[in-house]
Amino acid sequence: MSKPDRIIIEFVKVGHLVKVNAICERTGREVSMVGDPRVSKAELERLAAKKLRYVMEKEAAAKHQGGRRGITI
Question: What is the DSSP string of 5-38?
């Protein structure tokens, strides 16, 4: 299963930006992104969750292909 069950979202103000961490509760997989603090928290949360799902799906696909990356010649 590549999609996270539950996601923990963390917001950290860093200077004039906001760092957003999204963590899959089941696997502990974490991704980070930086956003504009003028954007709503809901939108930043949505984008961070979308990035986490993308990364987890990409990792699952790579694992399914035997973990190979790049082009085999």
Answer: SSEEEEEEEETTEEEEEEEETTT--EEEEEE-TT
